[in-house]
Structures are given as C-alpha cells and as structure tokens.
Amino acid sequence: MAPQDRLDVLILGSGGREHALLKACLRSPRVAKVRVAPGNGGMALEAECLEVDAANPAAVLELVRRTGSTFVIVGPEVPLAAGVVDALESAGIPAYGPLAAGARLESSKAFSKDFMVRHRVPTAASATFNQLAPALAYVRAQPVPVVIKASGLAAGKGVVIATTLAEAEAALHDMMETKVFGPSGDEVVIEEFMQGEEASIMLMVCGEEYLMLPPSQDHKRVGEGDTGLNTGGMGAYAPTTVVTADVERRLREEIIVPTLRGLKADGIDYRGTLYVGIMVTATGPRVVEFNVRFGDPECQVLMPSLETDPVEIMEAIAHGRFRASSVKLRPGSTIIIVLAAGGYPGEIRKGDVITLPAELPVGVDIVHGGTKRLPDGRVVTSGGRVLGVVAHGATLQDAARRAYAVVPQVRFEGAHHRRDIGYRQLKRDGAL
Ligand code: AMP
Ligand code: GLY
Predict the structure, then answer these.
(1) 140-191: per-residue pLDDT in tens?
(2) Number of H helices and number of E strands within the chain?
(3) Which domains occur in the chain, in start order?
(4) Which residue from 76, 80, 352, 372 has the least number of CB within 10 angstroms?
(5) Alpha carbon of 257 to those of 95, 203, 300: distances in Å?
(6) Which residue CA neighbors atom 3 of ligand 2 most closely?
(7) C-alpha distances in angstroms, 336 versus 173, 329, 365, 399, 404?
(8) Measured in whole angstroms, how far is the alpha carbon of residue 340 from the centre of its chain?
(9) Ligand 2, closest atom to CA 156?
(10) Is there an atom of ligand 2 within 6 Å of 233 CB?
C-alpha cells in the first residue's frame, strides 16, 4: 500500500473508550498518523492532543482542515448528536459514527421508544410526557418498580428506578419542575420495569450489513455485588454467555434485523456503532436502550477481541462498503477493571499523582480515562473513572487473574475498584 494512502486520523473524545481506539489506531497498518482532541494524560504519552469544542461541528471541521486529517473517529455521543459527522460528510471528510438523524436513537429516548414501537422491536412498554400533571396521573396507575427517564442526554444519569410511588413522583418533579437535567427533562419517558440480566451488544453497522462484536457485560453500580450508586461503569468483560445461542438468534431476528430495516425505512443511512443495551428476560431479549457509540468501558475489552484491524472496519463502514463476513475475532476472554477516583461517583478528588507499574506482563494493558499529564511529565487524576487495567486470557478466570495481579501496582490517593468484575460469568463458568 502506498504511504500516501494511509490515514491521518483524528479521534474525538477523552475517555478510556477513546484511549482504546487510539491504541487500535497505533497498531493499525492503515494509519500513518493519529491525533486526539481533547485526549487525556495517557493519550498524551502516545499521540498529539489538541483542544477543540467537539460539540461544535464548525470547530471540528476547522481542526480537521488545519491538521490535514483524512479520517475522523468520533468517540462520544455529544458530537454525533450535534451533527459533527454531517458537517464532515458535507466537506468530503470520511468519519466513523452516525449522522445526527441516526444519533437521535440515543439523544432522544422519546424518539427511540417511538422508533421501537413503529418497527415492532421488543422493549419495555412506555409512555412519553411533556407535562407534569398527566405524567403524575399516569404513574399513579402503574405498578412499581417503575422506570422514569429524562428523554434528552443526561450523561447516563437521567434514569430513576423507583421502587415506590413516592419516589416515582419525586423523580417526575425533579426532572419536569426543578429541571435537574435542564432541558433534557422537558420530556420524560415512564417505562415498565424489566426483570432479567443485562448485556451490551455492540454492532458495527453499515446500513443493513452489521458485525456483532462479542456480547459484553458492564458493571454499573459502584459497589461489589451490584450495590450502591450508579456509575459510568466500573468494569466489563467479553464474551458473556448470558447471550446463549438461542438468545443470540432471537436478538438477531427480533431486534437487530427489524432495527436496521426500520432505520432504512425511515430514510436513515446508519453507519457507525450501534450499542443495543438488552435485558435477557424470561420471555426473550428486549431493548433497554440504544446508544450510538461504543460503550465505555465495553470498548476497551472489545477492541482487543478483534483479529481484523478495527480501523479497516471503521474505514469500510464510513465508505459504505463493509462486509461483515471478512472480519475475524480472536478467541479467549477480555476483562477491564476500572480504578475510580476517591469520592466517585459523588464529588471526586482531583490532582492526585498516579504511580504506574514500570512494566506490564504480556496480555495486560492500562487504558487511561480521567487523567491529565502535567507540564513536568507527571500524570495526575482528573476525572471519576481514572483508568482501567485490561487483560486478555484463554478464559475469563485467566484474564481476571492477570488483571487483578496488576491492579495493586497502580497507585493514587483515594483509588477504589470492584473486586468482583465478571462474577456472573465466573459463576456460569463454574469458576466461583
Ligand atoms: P438507560 O440509560 O436507559 O440505559 O438506563 C440505565 C440503566 O437503568 C440500565 O442500564 C438498566 O440497568 C436500568 N434500566 C433502564 N430501563 C430499565 C427498565 N425498563 N427495566 C429495568 N431496568 C432498566
Ligand atoms: N458502559 C455504558 C455506556 O457506555 O453507556
């Protein structure tokens, strides 16, 4: 391949997900150069980090032109919802991630629920409201637990699972009257509570053609045994066999195919990641939510599960010429243990110096999230989910052993992590 054909990549984002995407780019023979905006302390050790307001399409376009970038990978949902890919496409710059019309599957839960109803995708029964009084009247007629969701983007915090009517009413007042999530709570979705085990299904989509990455499982609660407050995700692993062969068949037939057909029927040429959060219920898989980007921390365990170059896949999708049958997956299991800042998910400590192991064993890697590199070269904490230890092994037990052996070698004041990442699968495997 001629060197001029290789890509000059710009990655948008600053979390662990984007660091995993950067590592994939650094390994890729397709990539000549990679820059990140804004990046984090770990990414700064490996690539040039630039400032940009990623929610402003004009600013991103200006940065792309200034740096001569030839391919853009968008990590988070906010730039997608703001139309960054639309602006790049109009300017003839290929990018990985859906257009704003497709990003509505995540940026508006009301749109997403309406989409699922219209295209008969199994999900929780729900009703959408933009007035408090009818929302209260409706919720009073529902059984508990009941789920209350702010329709707009709320950084994963706009969902309340109310176990009493009083809690449900309080959540509606908070969202619709006090506006704790600002305009994201102008519209509220009230949803039936689904019982079951969750899984994260990451699809790399090119119209109706798609690759299903190994099903993974996140751990959203801060405490062991899934207790305590919700977080962005304290750890993940893949694959998970909660998605059995039968669940996978139903997932493809009843959820994925109707969704991709529905997008096409609605005139949306969807290209990018579609994250289908599912609940495996007694009556089959049902959709909890759609996201339009990779999960974080799921991405960190899925990139290493690809034998095929992820950049090659993203490039083919951006150009609308992807064939899923060409992709090879790696055998084995991958796990990530997230180390969080003191206080997370509440008020967090920042600025604590991080000590990292001088060397890592084969198959183990460290992915930064909320870190910052100081001018003197030290790396300090700057966000809630500070970094993650990622390990690959023949089995999940093997991967977990390798990851947990490195965790104590990463040190910063206030650090905390869960010691039970992957416990459901370890039980299924007979390893717990
Ligand atoms: P969401 O932002 O829609 O993914 O919701 C956040 C989390 O709340 C999900 O990952 C689930 O754990 C939980 N959740 C959301 N909706 C439901 C539901 N209808 N039934 C049960 N749990 C839910
Ligand atoms: N790990 C959950 C998410 O990325 O939304």
Answers:
(1) 999 999 999 998 887 767 889 999 999 999 999 999 999 988 888 789 999 9
(2) 14, 22
(3) 8-99 (3.40.50.20), 131-186 (3.30.1490.20)
(4) 352
(5) 24, 12, 26
(6) 295
(7) 37, 18, 9, 9, 9
(8) 17
(9) 5
(10) yes
